[in-house]
TrEMBL record:
A Pfam family matched in the record: ketoacyl-synt
Origin organism lineage: Eukaryota, Fungi, Dikarya, Ascomycota, Pezizomycotina
UniProt-recorded name of the protein: 3-oxoacyl-[acyl-carrier-protein] synthase
GO biological process, one term: fatty acid biosynthetic process
Gene3D superfamilies: 3.40.47.10
InterPro entries: 3-oxoacyl-ACP_synth-2, Beta-ketoacyl_synthase, Ketoacyl_synth_AS, Ketoacyl_synth_C, Ketoacyl_synth_N, PKS_Beta-ketoAc_synthase_dom, Thiolase-like
Stretches assigned to the Ketosynthase family 3 (KS3) domain: 1-432
Keywords, in A-Z order: Acyltransferase, Fatty acid biosynthesis, Fatty acid metabolism, Lipid biosynthesis, Lipid metabolism, Transferase
PANTHER family: 3-OXOACYL-[ACYL-CARRIER-PROTEIN] SYNTHASE, MITOCHONDRIAL, POLYKETIDE SYNTHASE-RELATED
């Protein structure tokens, strides 16, 4: 198989616009989760009134300014999730210094960007308009703005990329699937370069109402938004919805070396599995996540004892965090693993940004890549008492969860996990070159 490396990164997150701003604030322990009650009555009556929102403001302050960040006409043509994908893709391509003009290079470059939900705003607003005014109230751009694959489509059209043009929509595993699948397209020779990731923007009362009715969201911290996402903590009580985009430039190793590209990491392995269990709840024994991680290491040819860090999916839910914690310990402890649980380094960056749904896997993959590149373990915020709710002590939660503050650590191999409704699981393995 051809080897695949990461040569460019792009981010739009609740911590800011751009990789530099987001990473700096993440490792400094900042939180991008805010209260959303003031957005209007429809938000104020919801049981969960917190979200990881991309900050609005001046581009000079690394905040979202559509007029400055996008080209004229983009706001009209693109749904917000596609706008985020475009901005993240532009940053990643500039970072990779890959702006090809020759036909051969354009044909060898593809795009694989997905979304979990896409533009719920367009669905809702158009439905209301149609019910009130009928056919003529439906915009001719309704369907193009709605379609999830249009994020990848717009990026390919903007830069003239004629390679594979694809989009995954696998709930909260979308971003990880997009990167893993794109890497395989390079491995099998369908492209030399892929722009890959996920994007999401659904801070909408209907989405929040739906997740709240499914009892998935945090509702006990509305007056303290920055304390609401609490991965692995005993007081965790649901995830915090978020928005943003994460995009990477993946490249065949020899292609990258030939043009002198900067290399962040190698995509060493990619594992997939299914819980085959429940629509929204994980298996308590963590078998699905365990299988995904095992497959990722098998593809990488790496033993569990050399894994230095795992960026956990851990969304701050009661069952999900416990199941993943069990799966990680089952994987990394034992004959081919580590001898002590304290030597297992795990963190969940959702304490800082919330759960970005279809963008979560790609954004967190970028955090994993940056951690490996800079030898820094990103922190898990709001982690005061690891364990399960209602238990005074829990010996199962005895790993290093990088609570509160980032830690310096030599990282040679790292995993990034993503799991989604429907029981779909993916794990990406990154390594230093």
């Amino acid at each position: 198989m051809r080897k695949v490396v990461v040569t460019g990164l792009g981010l739009v997150t609740p911590l800011g616009i751009g990789v530099r701003r987001t990473w700096q604030r993440l490792i400094e322990g900042h939180c991008g989760i805010v209260g959303i009650k003031e957005r209007g009555e429809r938000f104020a009556v919801l049981p969960s009134q917190v979200a990881g929102v991309v900050p609005q403001g001046s581009k000079d302050d690394d905040a979202w300014d559509a007029k400055k960040l996008l080209r004229p006409g983009d706001e009209r043509k693109m749904a917000r999730f596609a706008q985020y994908a475009m901005v993240a893709s532009e940053e990643a391509l500039k970072d990779a210094d890959w702006m090809p003009k020759h036909e051969e290079d354009l044909e060898a470059t593809g795009v694989y960007i997905g979304s979990g939900i896409g533009s719920l705003d367009d669905v809702y607003e158009t439905t209301v308009s149609y019910e009130k005014g009928g056919y003529k109230k439906v915009s001719p751009l309704f369907v193009p703005r709605l379609l999830i694959n249009l994020a990848a489509g717009h990026v390919s059209m903007r830069f003239g990329f004629k390679g594979p043009n694809h989009a995954a929509t696998t709930a909260c595993t979308t971003g990880a699937h997009s990167i893993g699948d794109a890497a395989r397209l390079i491995q099998f020779g369908d492209a030399d370069v892929m722009i890959a990731g996920g994007a999401e923007s659904c801070i909408h009362p209907l989405a929040i109402a739906g997740f709240a009715r499914a009892r998935s969201l945090a509702t006990a911290w509305n007056d303290k938004p920055q304390e609401s996402s609490r991965p692995f903590d005993r007081d965790r009580a649901g995830f915090v919805i978020g928005e943003g985009a994460g995009v990477v430039v993946l490249e065949e190793l020899e292609h990258a070396k030939k043009r002198g590209a900067k290399i962040y990491a190698q995509v060493a392995g990619y594992g997939l599995s299914s819980d085959a269990y429940h629509m929204t709840a994980p298996r308590e024994d963590g078998q699905g996540p365990l299988l995904a991680m095992k497959h990722a290491l098998r593809h990488a040819g790496i033993k569990p004892n050399v894994v230095d860090y795992i960026n956990a999916h851990a969304t701050s839910t009661l069952l999900g965090d416990a199941a993943e914690n069990r799966a990680i310990k089952d994987l990394l402890l034992g004959e081919e693993g580590k001898q002590r649980a304290e030597d297992i380094n795990i963190s969940s960056t959702k304490g800082a940004i919330g759960h970005l749904l279809g963008a979560a896997g790609s954004v967190e993959a970028i955090f994993t890549i940056l951690g490996l590149h800079h030898n820094i373990l990103p922190p898990t915020l709001n982690l005061h008492n690891p364990g399960n709710p209602g238990e005074d002590s829990d010996e199962d939660f005895n790993c290093n969860y990088v609570a509160h503050a980032a830690q310096q650590k030599r990282i040679n191999v790292a995993l990034s996990n993503s799991f989604g409704f429907g029981g779909t699981n993916a794990s990406l393995c990154f390594s230093k070159m």
